[in-house]
Amino acid sequence: MNKVNSCPLNFTMNLIGTKWKPLILFHLLEGSLRSGKLQKKIPEISNKMFTQTVRDLEKDGLISRKVFPVVPPKVKYSLTNKGKSLEDILRSLDKWGSENYLD
Amino acid sequence: MNKVNSCPLNFTMNLIGTKWKPLILFHLLEGSLRSGKLQKKIPEISNKMFTQTVRDLEKDGLISRKVFPVVPPKVKYSLTNKGKSLEDILRSLDKWGSENYLD
DNA sequence: CCGTATCCCTAATGATACTG
DNA sequence: CAGTATCATTAGGGATACGG
Fold it and tell me: What is the CATH number of domain A3-100?
């Protein structure tokens, strides 16, 4: 069940190595976003996976979730400092992808 | 079925964003290794997953597989140039992991 | 608007045994 | 030594409908 093994590399991969996590973090690099706006940045994601993924990221301390007590509901997501510390990695991953997209 | 979406980041994650791939690439950063040696570097991996993962990495052009026609069989794996171009990313992932392991 | 709850399907992983 | 085959299990993901 536990995916961690002896290598620190895997600790990182366990936090961001899924289909949607890097994408959400990446979009939040530009600043905090309302829930709906963030989800629209990733049209392919299902409602369920979106909620599940932001919950995971929040639990791992990479993003923060702020709820505004208004109607209609308003929720904003933003990167924590820990999340921001992944910026270089995320941009590197994106850069490598754009450079090797040709195959 | 296809995991790629509009973001180059995901192209990269589709190549290395699995449980074992980054680990295998990481160990090969130090130089080429015989199959058995490489596998022993990752004691938790099953035989099946090891073979499957190196096959995937080979198919994606990140590692090369060299078979020596001797008995007993001898196979060496090494990074391709494309694989080597991931070095910075792999080391960054490992570094981030070691710095955030505490939780 | 934002999120939860179900149900269902497929892909990913693992254990074990076997072959050139 | 290196790899394949098979069977079984689990995790990841998606569709849909509903609720504060």
Answer: 1.10.10.10
